[in-house]
Oligopeptide transport ATP-binding protein OppF (Paenibacillus solanacearum), 308 residues
Amino acid sequence: MALLTVSDLKVHYPVRGGFFRRVVGEVKAVDGLSFELRRGETYGLVGESGCGKTTTGRAMIGLTEATSGSISLEDHALTRRYRREHPQYRKDIQMIFQDPYSSLNPRKRVLDIVAEPLRNFERLSPQEEKMKVQQFMERVGLHPEAILKYPHEFSGGQRQRIGIARALMLNPRIIIADEPVSALDVSVQAQVLNFMKDIQQEFQLTYLLISHDLGMIRHMCDRIGIMYRGRLVEEGTADDLFQSAQHSYAKRLIAAIPNLNPHERQEQKKLRQHMERQFEQSREHDFDQEGRAHPLKRLSDTHYAAIL
Ligand SMILES: Nc1ncnc2c1ncn2[C@@H]1O[C@H](COP(=O)(O)OP(=O)(O)OP(=O)(O)O)[C@@H](O)[C@H]1O
C-alpha cells in the first residue's frame, strides 16, 4: 500500500492586477498531479524551474492550500480540518529546505533551532532536551558541544546537516527535500547526499526529493516523475526513463544533462538539438489544445507516460 498518495492535485494562484488589485487571472502552478510514495523509497520529482515542484512540496506539508484534489497519508485525507485536528500528523512529514543559509534563524543557537519542533510536541526537561539534541547532532556528524553556536559559525554542508537533525527530531516517516544540495559547493553535495542515504535506512525514511538536477535525481531515486507545467509527463525507474523515455519533453530533458566526457560533447550537442526540434515538432501531438500533458498511460508495472 502507498504511504502517501497525491491524487489530481491542483494549486492555482490568483493573479491580481490594476488599481483595485482585482483577480485578473490565475497561475496553474500544479494542475492535475498524481503520484504516490511507497514505504522506504526515494521518489524524485524533477522538472524545469516553474513547473510546480516546490508548490507540490508545500501543499504536501500544508503550507499551501490545494485548490482541488487530495493528499492522503495511508487512509487519512490530509484536509485542512484533519491537519488542524491532528497536529501529530505534522511529525510524520518533515521538510528540508533548499538554502540552509536562510532556513535557519541566524539569531538562534543551534540548540534552540534543532529543539524547536520538539517543543511543540513533547514536554522534556531542559536537560533531557539538551541531551536529545546533542545525540542527534552527533548522529549527523557534528560535535555535540556545537549546540551553543549560531548558524553562521558553520559551513554550508554543516548547516544542511543541522537542518536534517532538526527534521529527524520528531521521528518522521516522510522527508521532503527540496533542492537539498543545490546551494552547496559541488565538493560537499555528494557527502550530504550519501549521508541522506545512510540515515534513510537507519530511520526508515521515505524521501520525496525535489530537484531540477536530473543527474542527481538519477543517482538517488528508485522512481522518478518528470513534471511539466504542473503535471507529470512521464514516471518510471531510472532505467525506464534513461533507457526508453517515451514523451518528447522527457527525452529533451534527459538529452540536456551535461556530459562530462569531452569526447562525447559534440555528439551530445547534436542529440540535444535533435531532441529540442522533436519536442517543438510534436507539441500538437504530445499536449492537448491548452498545452497540458495528456493523462498517463501505463507502459509497464513501473513505467507511465503521457502519450496518446
Ligand atoms: N505564492 C504564489 N503566488 C503566485 N504564483 C506563484 C506563487 N508561488 C509560485 N507561483 C508560480 O507558480 C509556478 C510554479 O512555481 P514553483 O515554485 O512551484 O515551481 P518550481 O518548479 O519549484 O520552480 P523553481 O525550481 O524555480 O523553484 C511558477 O509560475 C510560479 O511563479
User: Anything to note?
Assistant: DSSP finds twelve helices and twelve strands in the chain. Residues 13, 27, 29, 47, 49-55, 212 surround adenosine-5'-triphosphate (CB under 6 Å). The chain has two domains: 2-229, 247-308.
